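Two proteins were folded this term; both appear here.
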Amino acid sequence: MPGHFGTRWARLNGPARISGVDLARGLAVLGMFAAHLLVTAESWVWSEPGTWLAIVDGRSSILFATLAGVSIGLVTGGRTPLGPEQMNVARGRLAMRAGVLWVLGILLILTGVPVYVILPAYAILFLIVLPLTGLKAGPVLWTAAVLGIVMPFIQPLLDRLPIWQGPFALELDAAIGWHYPFTVWVAFVLAGLGIARAGVTRLSVQIRMLAIGAALAAIGYGLAELSPPAMNEYWLAVWTSEPHSAGIWEVIGSGGFVIAVLALCLLMCRIPMLKAVTLPLRATGAMPLTAYVMQLLVWTAIAVWVLNDTGNLFGFRELDPFWPLTLGTIIGCTLWALLIGRGPLEWALERTSRIVRSAPSQVGRLDE
């Protein structure tokens, strides 16, 4: 047993693991739990502590998207993109994962739990980014910046397309995760890919991430406060930092915010004491798919048993499920990581992706 435990401990804490990325994933998981299960203020205001919980709205899912880009970057070579043969294998496996995630997302939507399931959007974003995985840090980051600035001006026009007034608009919205529109959110995934290509484990990169992320957050949220109050519908949709708006100030402000959060997580895990203290959150972040899916499945089971209605959001929140679900997830993930190893869904996803045969030199895993 000591050898077994030691192996699991080394996997979670060893030098091959980027602990700061796991910590950031863990925070994103808890943030999405809070966004789903708690009532938050309409907007987050620094000077009003009563609104601080609203920090989870929108930003948790953007952090997830950015971390997806980091993971894609790591499994496709890290600082140096893989060679053609290995890259084809890595892309094939990522495409396979995208397909599984999309199906899993649709199944979760069919439970009727009243949340915007992120997995279909996640899957589409994987596929969009694949052609750009051969690029180095500079081109990827510039592409992310251009899309992040340009697409918020186009998004309101896409939201008005006649297809959204058709008979199957709601089904299409759910199937492609339009609450997280890939047309804008691809900028977050590319930012994460660019960070991985720049060298996410390098101290100089982490410090620059913190500085640039904080500056972008200050610019985005600051300019949102200065936006003129009287505007037409189009400009209201563009000049906003509201969560899930895909407005330009949300892209800049919240995009910068999550980059700064990731940098802080990476820097914290350089300090042994802080790294040790954050073990439960890191264990949760090591199996984010399992944590996310299990939360929704437990929600479904409780809602059916107690309320006889999975779609009753207010009734479910009145049961005060946040702390039991959150603590149960953290404890469960920690015990699983230390006693068993990889998360069950992460293991299954990895095994499924291995249908795409390996090149002579193995490519990495998505949760590394």
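Next, the second protein.
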Amino acid sequence: MIVLVDPAGDGLGLSAAFREEGAECVHVYSEARKRAYDEDPAALRVLHDDLESTVRILRDLGARVVVAAHRGGPALADELAEALGLDHHDPCRRAARADGAQTLSVLRTAGVAHLGLRATRTVVGLTGLDEDEPGCVPASLRGWAGGDRYVVSTVSLSGSHLVTEVMSARVDLVAGVPVLRHLLASDEAGRREQEVVSCALAGLDALGVREGPAHTEVLHGADGPRLVRTSSSLIEVGRRTDPFHAALGYSHRYLTVERYLRPREFERRLGHGYQPRAAVGVAYLRERGEGRRRSADGLRSLRRMPGFHSVVDLPVVGTPQVRQEEPARQSIAYFVHEDGALVAHVLASLHEIEDSGDLVRTPSAIR
């Protein structure tokens, strides 16, 4: 039985990936995510009350793997795994992984360059203002110094880390709010990417991240790479994995499944290093203007762009556009091509179409 803690967004996709290979899953939700528990159609689900009772339920179900399936779940997942005697992270660093002030202290002691954000209860980053959807970043990132932003996703086995993607991130200020416009995994791992990876892996080791999926945010500026945040959970980049399989031959989600269901096969990957064979871009689309959507003819241009792979959750013509301050399921476009520079150019062109209001037209956006 695979135990997934606080599955949401891509975490539900992780559940589907385990089931695809014949593994049964049980979803465990913390009290803070009761709404997700109520809405989850999974046959097996548990609302966590106290550690002893939850462990008793999971032991009776024959739990053999515990994975944090959302960035809010690592602490509970780790406690459950340790109590069940299953693979877990270093318990001596558990408090540091959960508390921003201790995180910075541990990184400083280990000599890992970090951004030096003010100590808070949590260290926030690129993975979303709305906890279930990618595409926005918290306002606290306004204080980031100049530099390029990266996200490094990994899957670990007994303290050995496999890098699955190194993605650069474009973040723009939109109406004073930082918004994640796209992620781009290049077709090559150059010197800068190698420096970013070294920083991310040093952070994982310092924080005692030893098992399963994780993602780390790194800023690379004039003084080199600095770690922003590490989360021992699946990265949330969108709802499709096929573009990553097309570009890289795998995805973070399915390598997590492989690590737990076929560890020997996963172990053979550890010695190969990060060797991307093509680039993959993930664009989080936004609309301009207000009112009822009149047309989405800009999608013609989107689909003709070099490297276009697919697009999900398209806006429905004739429906009102949801105001930016309201939660909405975001359209995401994927691009795959052997030339990373071409994908970067295509993403920039796509953002120009978005910003002009020509992707989806509303009365206030039509000129």
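Confidence is low (pLDDT under 50) at residues 118-138. The CA atoms of residues 14 and 253 lie 6 Å apart. These notes refer to the second protein only.
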